[in-house]
Design brief:
9 helices, binds benzoic acid, about 200 residues, alpha+beta
Amino acid sequence: MKLCHAPASPFARKVRVCAEELGIPLTLETVQVAPTQPNRDFADAVNPLRKIPALVTDDGEALYDSTVICLYLDARAGGGKLLPAEGPGRWRMLTAHALANGMTEAAVTIRYESVVRPEPQRWQAWIDDQMDRIWAGLDWFERHPEARAGATPDLAQIALGCLLGYLDFRFADCGWRARCPAVADWYATMRTRPSFQRSEPGG
Ligand code: BEZ
């Protein structure tokens, strides 16, 4: 199976980590996707939204977005590996994952707003508001040790780890470790896993 990705994308990294944790090999193809520069070939062949990650299965079917791909990979591995197959725990896990994913969306949009958007059009109050959402999410993970528990990472933890890696990569001075020491301790172990080591952003 082929994963269309970008080396800096935390969403693509989440898929790569999930695949490696599940023992599913993926071939990587770097795809150029940038706002205002439509990659029509990618849109026609894979994802009309021109967003990565997108997975092309061995049957040639395209799957997106990152959450759909991760759930597909979990099902391919037999189900119930990265999140409970059913019951309240599944919905709890999907909600924690949605929180980590939403924080990641906020971080990526801050990056676009502060680097890609032409300077006169940048909106600092909007950037601050996105950052405030990230802090609120980090505070939630700090206050919920059960969301960081377990010997192997689950879907929400993988999403959280990829967010933290992205913060280190793009917002190295934001100071998240000082504010969330328990999350920082947890991440210090998580980031040593081969699945995280082999998918460092930009690598
Ligand atoms: C980045 O360069 O920060 C980035 C690239 C692709 C997707 C998301 C973020």
